Amino acid sequence: MNDTPIPRKKSTLDKDLDKIVRIEEAAGYLSRGVAATGFGILFIAAAAIFAAVYVAGENNGALIIVAAMLGGYMALNIGANDVANNVGPAVGSKALSMLGALIIAAVFESAGALVAGGDVVSTISKGIIDPATVANSGVFVWAMLAALISSALWVNLATVLGAPVSTTHSVVGGVMGAGIAAAGFSAVNWATMGAIAASWVISPVLGGIIGAAFLAVIKINIIYQDDKIAAARRWVPVLLGIMAAAFSGYLALKGLKKIVRLDGAAILALSAAVGVATYLVTKPIIRRQSMGMENRNQSVRKLFNIPLICSAALLSFAHGANDVANAVGPLAAVVHAAEAGEVLAKVTIPLWVMLIGAAGISFGLLLFGPRLIRMVGEQITKLNPMRAYCVALSASVTVIIASWLGLPVSSTHIAVGAVFGVGFFREWYTAKSKRRRDYMARKYNRTRTTPETVMDLPTPPAPPEELRRRLLVRRAHFTTIVAAWVITVPAAAILSAVIFLLLDAIF
C-alpha cells in the first residue's frame, strides 16, 4: 500500500496569499536600499548642522558647511567601499558573521581615526601638486571642493558596480585633475604621480605573491601532513607569532604615529619582541585547543578563527588611523583656507572635522558595506579561515615591506590582490595535484576499467566547459576590479577638472 500523501491543490486564496508574500518580500528588499540612502542623507545633513555649530559667525561659514557635507559624503563612501577589504575575508571564511564584522569594523575604524588619526594632514594629497601654483585661497578652495566631489562620486559609482577601489587613488586623481584645471600641467609633480601609478601594479602583485606564499607554507607543512594536528601544534604558534610581529610593525608604521613615533630599528625590535612573546603564549593554548580534535582539515581551520577576528580588528584600527585623511584632508584644507585666507602645505585637523570623518566611515560601513564585504569575502574566490588568514597576514606584511623599500602601495589593492593570489595559487596547485589528475582520469576516460590501469595511462583533457567551471577565481570579477583600478585616477581627475571649471565659472 502506498502511503505517500497526495499533494493538496492550492486554492485561489492560497495562490493570492503567495503572491502577496512575494510582493512583500520584494518591497522589503527594495526598501532596505532606500532606507540606507535616506539615513546617508540624514548623516550628511547632520554633518552640516555639526559644522554650523563650530563656524557660526565666522567668515565663509556657508562655504565651510558645504565642505563639511562633502567631507561627510566622502567618508560614507570610504566606509562603504574601502573597509570591506579589512573584514571581507573573515566574513567569507565564516569566522565572523556579517553583523559581527560590521560592529567590529565600525568600532575599530572609529577608534583608529580618533585615537591614532594624524593631527596634521597634507593639504595637497601625497604632494602631487605644488602649493605655490594654487596660492590663491579662493582658487584653492574650489580645487579642494572639486577633488572631494569627484573622488566621492567615483567611489560611490565603484561601490554600486561592486568594485573595491583605492580611495587614496581617488583623492589623488581628484586633486590632480583640479590642480591641472586650476594651474596647468606644470603644477603636477609627475615623478610622484609615476610612483603612485607604479603602485597599481606593485600593490596587488606583492600582496598576491605573499598571500600565496603563506598558503603554500600552510598546505605543505600542515594540510598535507599525515598527522595534521601534530603539525598544527608546531606551525600554528609560529604563524601567530609572525602575524603578531607583522601587525605590531604595521600599527607602528601606519596606525600609531599620533601617539608615538618610532624609528626603523625600534619598530623592528618591537615587532620581534611581540612575535616571540605571542609564540610562547599561544603554543600551550593551541595544544589545549587541539586536544581531542579529529585528524581533519576542518579541525585545523578552527584554530585560525580567533586570530582571523583579531586581524580584522587590527586592520580596521590601522585603516581608520591612516585613511581617515582621505575624507577629512581636503575638508581640513578648505576650513583653514576659508578661515585664514592662506594656503599651507600642511594644516592641523580640527577635532570636529575628525569626528565627521570617523562617524562617516562607520555609518557608511553599516549602511552600505555588506555589498563589498560579500564581494571581497565570498564572490572572488572561496575562502576558509586558513586562506582568509593568509590574506590578512599578507596585508600587514606587504605594507611593512613596501614601507621599508620606499614603495607607494594601496591597502585596498594589497588585500584584494592577496585574495586573487590565494585563489590563483589554489588553481595552480590543484592542477598539479596527482589526486586531482587521477580523479579527472577516472571521470573522463571511460576506457579505463580498473584502478591499476587508471594510474598508468595519461590523463585526458577535460572538456572546456568543465575547465571553466573548475576555475577557482571568478574571471568576471577579476576583470571588473582590475579595470576599475586602472581607470580610478584618470576618471577621478577628469571628473574633478570638469567640476572645478564649472565651480569657477559659476562662482
Automatic annotation (TrEMBL):
The subcellular location is: Membrane
A molecular function (GO) term: phosphate transmembrane transporter activity
Record carries keyword Ribosomal protein = no
The UniProt entry lists membrane topology as: Multi-pass membrane protein
Q: Which UniProt keywords apply?
A: Membrane, Phosphate transport, Transmembrane, Transmembrane helix, Transport
- Record PANTHER family: PHOSPHATE TRANSPORTER
Please report the name of this protein according to its UniProt entry.
Phosphate transporter
Q: Which organism is it from?
A: Oricola thermophila
